[in-house]
Write a structure and sequence with these properties.
With 235 residues, the chain is of the alpha/beta class. It has helices at 22-32, 66-78, 117-120, 131-143, 164-172, 182-191, 214-234, and strands spanning 15-19, 34-40, 47-52, 55-60, 84-93, 103-110, 148-155, 177-179, 195-205.
Length: 235
């Protein structure tokens, strides 16, 4: 048990999928894992462990935003021995060619600040996805037929953002999409020698204002779970 995770030692698999929403963790575990078992419910942050094609897998909520994700990523890696962490989530497109329902696989994530920012002092650390996971996820994503984009994203600390000028700069610099967790996930994983990747579905578009309805979100989310499982357990 840790401060935020009630699981016993050995209850968490080396492979962990991290959706933001704990109810999504429950949905994915029940739909994709064999014999899913609830291993955490502290603060309503649900985590389940089961098997996929015989491989042990944990699907655990990360919460919204980097401070929340940072707590779970740290404890999962340091205290429970997680070695491969794949965020599955949604993002807002920042590019005209990145459409609703497309998949974005994040090579790197810019940010204004992460919970790890203070320790780097003058250094602008460049968070980076694990290459083997990235390659396997792109292959799996392309196999679904859904347009897949690979590149940099922006991990924001603010959902209700008041800096349209900053978004404009990122669009100019080719940043594909905005979400709120990947930069810290990549940084914490790097610190502890673990592998990390973020696979995202485009749920809304910053330029057009379009957004997916809840049924499409669920379908896209299911695709990402499959891609994440294939990538994590083949690479
Ligand atoms: N901003 C931040 N995070 C997001 C967004 C967004 O527009 N869409 C999905 N996650």
């Amino acid at each position: 048990m840790t401060i935020h995770i009630g699981a016993k030692t050995g209850d968490i698999a080396e492979t962990v999928l991290l959706p933001g929403d704990p109810m999504r963790a429950k949905w994915a575990a029940e739909k994709f894992l064999d014999a899913p078992k609830l291993v955490n419910k502290v603060r309503g942050m649900l985590g389940f462990t089961g098997t996929w094609n015989g491989h042990p897998v944990t699907i655990h909520g990360s919460g919204m935003g980097m401070p929340s994700l940072s707590i779970y990523a740290n404890e999962l890696i340091r205290d429970y021995g997680a070695r491969t962490l794949v965020r599955i989530g949604s993002c807002g497109s920042m590019q005209a060619h990145v459409k609703l329902r497309d998949i974005v696989v994040a090579m790197t994530a810019s940010s204004m600040e992460t919970p790890s920012r203070g320790m780097f002092r003058e250094l602008n650390f460049a968070p980076c996805a694990d290459w083997t996971l990235l390659r396997a996820a792109v292959e799996a994503a392309e196999g679904t037929g859904t347009p897949t984009h690979v590149g940099g994203i922006y991990s924001s600390g603010t959902f209700y953002d008041e800096r349209p000028d900053l978004n404009e700069q990122m669009t100019r610099h080719g940043v594909l999409a905005v979400e709120m967790e990947a930069a810290e996930l990549y940084t914490v994983a790097a610190r502890h020698g673990a592998r990390a990747l973020a696979i995202l579905t485009v749920s809304d578009h910053l330029q057009t204002g379009e957004a997916l309805n809840s049924e499409s979100r669920e379908r896209s989310f299911g695709d990402m779970v499959r891609i994440a499982l294939e990538a994590a357990l083949s690479a």
